Amino acid sequence: MKRLLNTLYVNQPDVYLMLEGETVVLKKEGEKLGKLPLHNLESIVAFGYTGASPALMGYCAERNISIVFMTMTGRFLARVTGKSRGNVVLRKQQYAISEQEEESMKISRNMLTAKIQNSKWVIERTLRDHRLRVDEKALESASEKMTMYAKEIYASANMESMRGIEGQAARDYLHAFDHLILQQKESFFYKRRSRRPPEDNMNALLSFCYTLLANDTAAALEGVGLDAYVGFFHQDRPGRISLALDVMEELRSCFADRFVLSLVNRKMVTSADFKEKENHAVLLTEDGRKKVLKAWQEKKQEQITHPFLKEKISWGLVPHAQSLLLARYIRGDLDAYPPFFWK
């Protein structure tokens, strides 16, 4: 298993990145803000695009250090990566499977079953730990529905029916999501999913963390030689990292949602960390992003036992582990793709 390296998050706007020896230098309006050695980094994520020097991009590309540019609101702009890793046979097999509905369903079925089961256990964990503080009947009902949907996914006859079941499961899980918010209810609540733009604090936090998880997952897939843009469940669309979205479905609730709930319920973020723009879009402030990014890095360092590999790894390496397992299945080394079941 690879070693988890650090990600450099550049949170300030108008920062230019350049190479100096084997370090990355951060400059703003000609003033040097700081520099960091590159040998401990696996990626650089810059919010507020100013740019990076060709020398830095070339150095990082050669050493498989991805550079991701995002807007200050957390919208993905571009990713700079090096040569495709892995052999061409693996990607050709990936493309072949993506064109066959029956083969794509074998992988998608396992991914979605894990997604629904993990959503169920997020609900069950809240019931176990905070039964006297939540709507017990509402959460028990949601948990029972997740069990039913997981069974229906396995019985689905085609991709269209599978997408319908997954969509209904997601809606019922999100209907229960507001019950999982135990603190700061006046500022943090969940009524419906709003993305472009997020219309409240909770949607702004979820969207930001989903983007972080999607970027980490895309980098992991590319790192093992797969094409992050060609998925099995999510349909191909120009510019969309469909396979990364497939894999992160397993991790959405148990990683990103639990992380967001922890930030709110432990009051690590407050309403002061958000701002509302003229078009009613709600965004994290610069200080708010700093808090979230610091906590995200700490979360990625936490150790768990991988349910299939039976090895202790950090949360940050889970996307890499799942990418490796997916690549092994596509190569024919495994009889089925083993998804990530969290409990």
Question: What can you see in these coordinates?
Answer:
The longest helix is centred in the middle third of the chain and has 30 residues, at 101-130. By secondary structure, the chain is of the alpha/beta class. It has nine helices and twelve strands. 48% of the residues lie in helices and 16% in strands. It has helices at residues 54-62, 88-98, 101-130, 136-155, 159-177, 201-223, 242-265, 286-301, 318-331; strands at residues 6-10, 16-20, 23-28, 31-37, 41-47, 51-52, 66-70, 76-80, 274-276, 282-284, 303-305, 312-314. A four-stranded mixed sheet has the order 1-5-7-8, sandwiched between helices. The protein is globular, with a radius of gyration of 20 Å. It has two domains: 7-85, CRISPR-associated endonuclease Cas1, N-terminal domain (Ribosomal Protein L15, Chain: K, domain 2), CATH 3.100.10.20; 90-331, Up-down Bundle (Four Helix Bundle (Hemerythrin (Met), subunit A)).
Brief overview:
The protein contains 9 helices and 12 strands.
Descriptive labels:
343 residues; single chain; 12 strands; alpha/beta; Four Helix Bundle (Hemerythrin (Met), subunit A); four-stranded mixed β-sheet; 2 domains; Ribosomal Protein L15, Chain: K, domain 2
